[in-house]
């Protein structure tokens, strides 16, 4: 009888042995925690499709920020839920816009916590698109005007930096957005504020719960003329390449779970820090199954986040961040 010469199981015999040869380690430093901020006082409204995620007014944001700091998570990503919308997304770039106010408050309460501002217009425009609308002269169809959108996005990014945002994260998928924002930030004296670009953002059904959270569902059409086709991989390299050339400091792939191959591709091609966005429906699916007692939430979340890191993500934006931070401490 022939016995195997190679015995993979030798290195799996004990917990200490497995720990010694473990290739990927999750750390609290990997996580970025998204928050939805809104006007008013005493608002803490749970988003029905995202249990544990809330709309928070600034007075109640403070306790949440203290919980983030206590968890050891180093960065929050701010999304605004404004009280007024118009065709050009004015509330996105006002000095007293909700994200601008929240940014100033967070930097005052917790100066060392990094504030990342999502730079987009969909929550601030009455039509719910990420850019400006114009009507094609020949067909009369409404279209997203790329270059007019860039001007508004630059104003938004500069106002966020003025409010004290540590990192600008443009998620709008207009062509040239990284270059335009870099130039605008530099001209306004913010040459040291990095850009975390949503480089590869797919037109995905996995954003459904977020659109309820941010009230940012497009009022007509969809985002397929600016966000990427989920069937494409090589195009992701072209998208990332322009962001690198235009001066992005970090690249992002979004969503994460169905796009692990894209995370790996970008990791192999580029040296910039790579971010994966573990998006809303990825969170909701876990929460729903866990609420039914069908899965072990803690094990599923840690395995999923480990998978994203193993695929190549250096950082993970996740609604599970505070839970995962606790679980990593063994709590
Ligand atoms: C804004 C934006 C979206 C998300 C982040 N920034 C929604 C969209 O593009 O429709 C989705 C995040 C999530 O689903 O968790 N453009």
TrEMBL record:
Keywords: Heme biosynthesis, Lyase, Porphyrin biosynthesis. SUPFAM superfamilies: Aldolase. Its EC number is 4.2.1.24. It is an enzyme of class 4 (lyase). PROSITE patterns: D_ALA_DEHYDRATASE. Pathway: Porphyrin-containing compound metabolism; protoporphyrin-IX biosynthesis; coproporphyrinogen-III from 5-aminolevulinate: step 1/4. It comes from the Bacteria. InterPro entries: ALAD, ALAD_AS, Aldolase_TIM. Pfam families: ALAD. GO terms for molecular function: porphobilinogen synthase activity. SMART domains: ALAD. It catalyses: 2 5-aminolevulinate = porphobilinogen + 2 H2O + H(+). Catalyzes an early step in the biosynthesis of tetrapyrroles. Binds two molecules of 5-aminolevulinate per subunit, each at a distinct site, and catalyzes their condensation to form porphobilinogen. Belongs to the ALAD family. Homooctamer. NCBIfam families: PRK09283.1. This is Delta-aminolevulinic acid dehydratase. It comes from Paenibacillus glycinis.
């Amino acid at each position: 009888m022939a016995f195997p010469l190679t015995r993979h199981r030798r290195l799996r015999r004990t917990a200490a042995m497995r720990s010694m040869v473990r290739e990927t380690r999750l750390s609290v430093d990997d996580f970025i925690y998204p928050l939805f901020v809104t006007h008013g006082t005493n608002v803490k409204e749970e988003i029905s499709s995202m249990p544990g995620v809330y709309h928070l007014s600034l007075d109640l944001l403070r306790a949440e920020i203290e919980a983030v700091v206590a968890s050891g998570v180093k960065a929050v990503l701010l999304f605004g839920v404004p009280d007024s919308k118009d065709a050009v997304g004015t509330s996105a770039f006002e000095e007293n816009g909700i994200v601008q106010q929240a940014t100033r408050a967070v930097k005052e309460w917790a100066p060392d916590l990094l504030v990342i501002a999502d730079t987009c217009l969909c929550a601030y425009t009455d039509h719910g698109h990420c850019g400006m609308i114009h009507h094609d002269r020949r067909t009369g169809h409404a279209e997203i005007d790329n270059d007019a959108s860039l001007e508004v996005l630059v104003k938004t990014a500069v106002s966020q930096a003025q409010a004290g945002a540590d990192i600008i994260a443009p998620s709008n998928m207009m062509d040239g957005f990284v270059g335009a924002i870099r130039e605008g930030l530099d001209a306004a004296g913010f040459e040291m504020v990095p850009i975390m670009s949503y480089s590869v953002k797919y037109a995905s059904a996995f954003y459904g719960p977020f659109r309820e959270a941010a009230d940012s569902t497009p009022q007509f059409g969809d985002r397929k003329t600016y966000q990427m086709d989920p069937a494409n991989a090589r195009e992701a390299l072209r998208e990332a390449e322009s962001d690198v050339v235009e001066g992005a400091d970090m690249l992002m792939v979004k969503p994460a779970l169905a796009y692990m191959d894209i995370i790996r591709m970008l990791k192999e091609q580029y040296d910039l820090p790579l971010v994966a966005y573990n998006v809303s429906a990825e969170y909701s699916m876990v929460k729903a199954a866990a609420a039914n007692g069908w899965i072990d939430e803690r094990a599923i979340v840690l395995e999923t986040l480990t998978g994203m890191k193993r695929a190549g993500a250096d950082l993970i934006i996740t609604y599970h961040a505070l839970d995962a931070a606790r679980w990593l401490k063994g709590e």
